[in-house]
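FAQ: What does the model actually see?

It sees only this:
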Amino acid sequence: MSTCTEEGAISHAESALAAARQAAALIPPLWPLASSVAVNPYLGHTDEPLAFAAARLRRAAGVRSTMSRDWYARHLHEGRISDDDLAAALDAVWTTANLPSVAQLKALMAIDAPAPRALPRVADLVADCSGIDWSGIVTERISHWAADYFDQGQALWAGTKQPHAYAAWRSVASLDLTPEIAGLKHFASDVARLPDVAADALTACSRQLGITAQAMPAYFHRLLVGMGGWSQMARYRQWQAELAGKHDNTLIELLAIALVWEVALHKQYASAIEMPWRRAQAFFGEPLQPTRDELLDAVFQEAFERGEQRRLAEAMAVEVAAQRPGQAALQVAFCIDVRSEVFRRALESVDPSIRTIGLAGFFGIGVAYRRHASDVVEPRLPVLLHPQWHARAGGHDAASVQRDRSVRIQRRATRAWGRFKLAAISSFAFVEATGPVYIAKLIRDALALRRASKAGDPAPQMDPQPALDDRIALAEGALRSMSLTGHFARLVVLAGHGAKVVNNPHASGLHCGACGGNSGEANARLMVQLLNDKAVRAGLVQRGIAIPADTVFAAGLHLTTTDTLTLFDLEQLPDTHADDVARAVRWFATAGALARAERVWRLPGAVRAADVFQRARNWAEVRPEWALAGCQSFIVAPRHRTATRDLGGRAFLHDYDWRNDEGFALLEVILTAPVVVASWISLQYYGSSVAPDLFGAGNKLLHNVTGGIGVVEGNGGLLRAGLPWQSVHDGERLVHQPLRMSVLVDAPREAISAILQRHPDLCRLFQHHWMHLFALDEHGRMAWRHEGERGWQTMPAQTVTPSRSEPALA
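And it is asked to produce this:
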């Protein structure tokens, strides 16, 4: 190691830590399986356009950020991309000289771009010259340690737990002879002599490798990306700590671990890789600049999106039938989730007196929730927020406590029995002795004959109970969020949503993203309690919301795997509404049948509506539903703008009437919270489709759960993040069209622009086209497109087409 002045050492240390933080900011978090939510894999790249993100990811991971050229060429041939789309996309994306013509673009679309290649790490260069797969060995050893370090109770024999990743790794690596057996001399002893602090090791290692300050950010990003989901799990820890106002350094410590491996390999093979390593360092230090091919691919992606937006504009130009006057017989509030669009449309078609409403499915009551007989606290709110309230299933009375204790004992016995079955000393004997007993169960599960389990949690309650003013504020916020401040029906249902599946590690990803990857019935039940509270209602009157005395709220759960809607706590409703409830239950059953009939044709192998139920119960089914595949748009508008339109289960629908939004405060909340969360969903599906090797979870058939936190393919290796391939592909073709989400807002453009000015991060998402922004006119048509610094641009006029659908009720 070369000597340097103290001032120079400090400067190098500061540069290394700054570069490490810069690289860490490019890594998206990965939520554990128990509460997995959609995450934007381009989270750290949204300050730059797609072509620049593509260049950065090409250098770090060797992946493309768009589809292959032949995919766009096929859509061009089918007429889904027009010459006008190409011309508009070229104008929006191209940033350099030598502007191609539309004809040249069409010709270039037939010539696929070269496959991208990641810049090499030391391990890659050493693998090439030695013939030993050092890249694979490093991945295997880091993954072997990380699976234990991040374990959340799955491992039968857990290693020694230490709070800091670097120290935990050193304690293992200093005793691990595997690298030396593979040919890396003195690795364990070199690890034992490392600095005790990760930051010092990072500084020393980067200096030994000769990495310049200019090359550090890209090189460190390359190393972090190379650790796959383990880096993302560390980023999750940092995310959670920052939400709580704390700090977590696990991701930087992982980077230090990767650097130690690089130094060890460089020390042994320095002479063999001297020239290629110098060239690699020079490439890492070059300013980021997209290639011409990356600009072209960004143009093709933009053109494809504009073609889809043109079809959406045509659908929005269909005239909506006039609304019937009179009070609604039933109002049902659903989550904005795209799967709700199908059920809402089906339900409204059952009877013209039904009105549905859309809002974020946690119903504005973000709680840290403890289920019945559980010590686990689940954040039931969007992951961008921190819970302000606490709640639990059941009460503190003697009966509730006894029931809680009984269930705890039963569940602990079940877990203990499960661990005994898995234990090395008993697994073979257990299978031999009890295998015949399980024949019936295996047959039931294989034939999807398993009975669906019933929800067993008692009614939730706030713990502690908020003050009256806080309860009134929560109720008011929920009602204003759904633009429901008058014209109440006798029965109003708040329907959370969730999914019932078996043998699916990613089951929580089918639940409500607004509820932190959990089902939404607890939030619905808590909010219903507030809205039925007489004291809360009296307080709402003082705030301008008068709920009629004969209006009753009920909580429900929409199961998206089966399109059923179940009501809860009906014993708490007055007898005067028994007929209203019975009628609503019949309507829900009819709507469910309609929704299943619509969805079944999209599910591979399904031929009749009953197959939907069987798929949800089948332990071998890799596609119980399509979840949010196909999501395309987010529409912020009154329901009458979208009612009777068939949006194909591809639209997030948030009710909003700007005429009732004083100061546009609610619009600001919608654009900065639900819209951003939906963009995470959209971009997760996008990334899992265009770059499945980096941003996808791989093949479900090869998955093994590790550490209780995530999945690996096969028996080890990198933790996989994102969506399984079966969630976006049906075996023959992509079922999700990789689109960046289009946001349609029914509000004055001046109000939307003012919100963007107050929120630069949101503005950049639209400016760099990670989302597209449109304003609707007085007819509900997509009339204006937001073009970043160029402001609002008028869109081509759409002819209003008469509607043939039945009218919806206001």
